[in-house]
Amino acid sequence: MATETVKLYDNIKVTKLENSEIEIEGEIPVSVTPEYRNKAIKKFGENANIDGFRKGHIPEKILIEKIGEDSLMGEVAEMALADMYPTLVQDKNLNVIGSPQVTITKLAKGNTIGFKIKSAILPDFNLPNYKKIAENIMKEKDEDVEVTNVDVEKVLTEVRRGKARFEKAQKQAEEKDDKTKGEAPLEAGTESSEDSNVEDLPELDDTFISTLGDFKTVKDFKIRVREDLGKEKVQKIREKKRIALSEKLIEETEVKLPKILISSELDKMVAQMKDDVTRMNMKFEDYLIHIKKTEEDLRSEWSDQARKRATLQLLLNKIAQEEKIYAKKDEVQHEMEHILKHHKDANKDNVRIYVETQLINEEVFKFLEDKKED
Questions:
Q1: Helices 69-91 & 60-67, crossing angle to 10 degrees?
Q2: Which of 21, 130, 209, 351 has its CA 20 to 30 A from that of 15?
Q3: Strand partners, 120
Q4: Any long-range contacts for 51-60 (C-beta under 8 Å, 24+ apart)?
Q5: Cα separations in angstroms, 78 against 39, 40, 92, 247
Q6: Mind listing the pLDDT tens digit of every residue in the chain (374 residues)?
Q7: Are residues 195 and 202 in contact, defined by beta-carbon separation less than 8 angstroms?
Q8: What predicted TM-score, i.e. pTM, was given to this entire model?
Q9: In Å, how far from its chain's centre is CA 139?
Q10: Which residue, 261, 349, 203, 194, is CA-closest to 19?
């Protein structure tokens, strides 16, 4: 006898909204919740701290009393919806894009889970003549990519300044040690290495160069510097042309964007800003106070850029579809493993979508960059 497949959703109603958006109403059956309830209890148990019990060995009754039934059911709903949504989209043949906005409308133990999902669908629009646009951009004369001796010397000077800072820090550390021993410290001086004359900076010799990497001589280091500067110049020219190409494609495209797409791009931009601020060892709230703006101010200022980013992604998606450009499975798997290794709690489906999108975008740009005038 064949095993009956558990139905992840029921009573689905799809309503079309303005600007290529839809609203999906439905329920998750009671029969589905026990499996996700067990998963949620296990997840909470692995992370909960309760005196007298080891993580992962807390009795279920005590754990639920600790976290509360509402929190547990919230996790059940989140887990079930994460699995249900891709299946629902595929079954109903919904061409959704971007991140959906989910609202739980009914949530109680022993009952169905009610939900509303607002999502964007691929808007109908015509592609511009992307091949011709790419051809015109690509045939423009490139900037000079020659690396001069002056370019190399600038890098060497910065390395020498770095060595000067290192030596100064060592000297100050020694002076501090002397002071703790009761000896009078030497005068440290206030001149920064950046203000020093080049002639006053320490010379780079083979011994110091060997500490910077797989280099035996200063000559070896200069060769690598020249190669890296050349690659950097080529990359900058490539990025400049990609920006020009993107701007022209957006300019030549008429499309009514779903508001959710723009909001999703703004979410990504704000999240990136928060990450950047955190890396500067600063709280995002303090940063906003410093620049005298609110998060809503930033979202308002960035709305046009978010619109452009969303439009560009739609264009790249449609060009990929038109030209049958796909991400290679082995590359997707490799990149996913790398990301999940460093972000173990990340949702695998979201990571896969992100990786596939980035790889396809890169392949589309490469395809467009190959367009040359015959």
A1: 90
A2: 351
A3: 21, 97
A4: none
A5: 11, 10, 21, 38
A6: 444 456 889 999 999 998 889 999 999 999 988 999 989 888 888 877 777 777 767 888 888 888 888 999 999 999 999 889 988 998 999 888 878 889 999 998 888 999 999 998 888 899 999 999 999 999 888 777 789 999 999 999 998 888 888 888 888 877 776 666 555 544 444 445 455 566 678 788 888 888 888 888 889 899 999 999 999 999 999 999 999 999 999 999 999 888 888 998 999 999 999 999 999 999 999 999 999 999 999 999 999 999 999 999 999 999 999 999 999 999 999 999 999 988 877 778 788 888 999 999 999 999 999 876 54
A7: no
A8: 0.69
A9: 32
A10: 261
Q: DSSP character for 27?
A: E
Taking alpha carbons only, the member of 194, 193, 153 closest to residue 170 is 193
| 21 CB-near residues (< 8 Å, 6+ apart) | 118, 119, 120, 121, 258, 259, 260
Residue 189, judged by CB atoms within 10 A of its CB (0-12, 13-18, 19+), counts as exposed
Question: Phi and psi at residue 54, in whole multiples of 5°?
Answer: -80, 150
Q: How far is CA 273 from the centre of its chain?
A: 11
* Both tokens assigned to 337: 């493993």
Per the CB < 8 A criterion, the answer to whether 99 and 354 are in contact is: no
Provide the H-helix boundaries in 124-217: 130-138, 149-180, 206-209
Quote helix, strand, coil % in the chain, to nearest 5.
Answer: 60, 10, 30
C-alpha distance from residue 322 to each of 120, 130, 131 (Å): 21, 11, 12
28 within 8 A of 80, measured Cβ to Cβ: yes
Using DSSP, state whether 23 is helix, strand or coil: strand
Half-sphere exposure of 312 (CA within 13 A, CB side): 21
